[in-house]
Design goal:
Elements: E1 7-10, E2 13-16, H1 31-43, H2 45-54, H3 57-82, H4 87-92, H5 94-117
Antiparallel strand pairs: 1-2
Helix pairs in contact: 1-2, 1-3, 3-5
Amino acid sequence: MTRELTYTQIGEYLYPNLTLPETEEDAPMGKYGMLRETFLQKHHKGTYNSMLLTGRLTPHLREIDQQAEEQVDKIVSDLMKQNGVNEAMKARDQMGWVQAVNSFTAQAEEMVLAEIVYK
């Protein structure tokens, strides 16, 4: 399948009329999607440029962001169950509960960054 290019003349030069496909969502990108984009820009420039030019970058970043968010939530939930961190502990020792959840979140994010975002 070949597409015929059209051009616009500006001065002596002909510039191709290229446009990116319109995105479905204008919602801001999440934390993990932005981290993935930066990773691709710095370490996989060819892949980044190819995905950007073909319109596959934004859907890819949104998918990575969603997967990472879901995985972090699942890991934190599992760690809370394994360590007995629940609503009873929250009522009994609020600061201890916050410390435990923050620790679990940091552990989960470290795993997700290595397995999903920086892969």
